[in-house]
Amino acid sequence: MTRRHSFASALTIAVLVGQTWLSSGSAHAIDNDPVAADLVDLALAIPEAVTAIEDADTALKRIARMEQEKLIDKKEGEKYRVQKRLASRRLELLRFLLDAELEATEMRLGFLKARQKDLGIDAPVRITAAEQRRHVLTLLKEASHVSEENADDTTLKQPQNSTTVTGIVRVVGEVPDLPDLSTKRFVRSMRQAERGEAGQPWPSPCGADSIPDESLLVGPDGGLANAFVYLKETPDDIHAPIPEEIALVTAHNCRFEPRCSIVRVGQKVQCNNLERDVVPFRIRPFENSPWLEVVAPRDDVGFTFEYTRREPIPFFIRSDFHSWMSACRLVVDHPFAALTDEGGRFQINGLPEGEHDFRVWHERVGYLEKALKITVGESEPTEVEVTVKAERLIEDKRKNLP
User: Fold this and answer.
1) pLDDT of 41
2) 113 vs 122, 127, 135, 250, CA distance in Å?
């Protein structure tokens, strides 16, 4: 969407908002009319966000040409990339508000028409106002979209020279077997709690009093499973379509499955429950909004949502009812992230040539490598090895992590 079109849309919308206000028959000023005032706020905010994105795009294109000619450093464009991200997030919120307002207006319009039909109440002014409000909201939604031409110009492209990074995360030293996790539960009265008594045992939902601790899985050759290996920052000029498959977390067999996972910003996420008990999913990311949802027993649908921001490190999904249930999740805005398999191996494809900073993270200790530098050539695959001493993994530091 060009700037001229953005402001023309804003002007048209402002006029229509005025018409809506006048047709409502209100005797108050528009500042005192919340129905009209919120439309004015949206009419001003949406073109402002779209214009900010367009300005950032124009600056980034100019900077990209200068970077190719090596006239400036790549860090020069960072403030414009931040500006575009912030404007895009604001525009995303405005679109969400528009959808909510449209739905509410449709419901109100249907109610008014049904009431007029069934009860014979004459309400043409209110119906006309609701119809005009719906029309204004529709125009606002159209004005909130950046044109396809502009989107094509700013689409990030796959680099011509890219290669594959493979590697292994290996444990050095002897790793002892971890004790099982107790699934015993006790019910106690208030008096027993005041006395510090344990209370009466309650049947375990797992069918056993303990389950294996799977927070530390090491293969026969010392390969460490479930280690996150991911690029610290998103590379410039990389096209990364969002995966269409749903990222699923299931409460099953007294566990969250999969235990560790990586999802993309904007990818559909689903949490369901195959247990006999209710299971609360407490999701505690750092950058995204926290989430708590209690899912009924045998509910294979559960709930779905999306993450809107990338996370600096993985975070935990826990159950408030079952202390032994936890899972790790990393949210990224690029495809250059992987989990190590049972043998500790990982593979990352399509990485552009040059030097990159990676992070290696494990749930028991946090960072294994905070700034692992990997240099990628033009075509030859790159092989890396990360070693960690067994002593670091024996002490469980998960209680210190959110």
Assistant:
1) 67
2) 10, 7, 17, 44
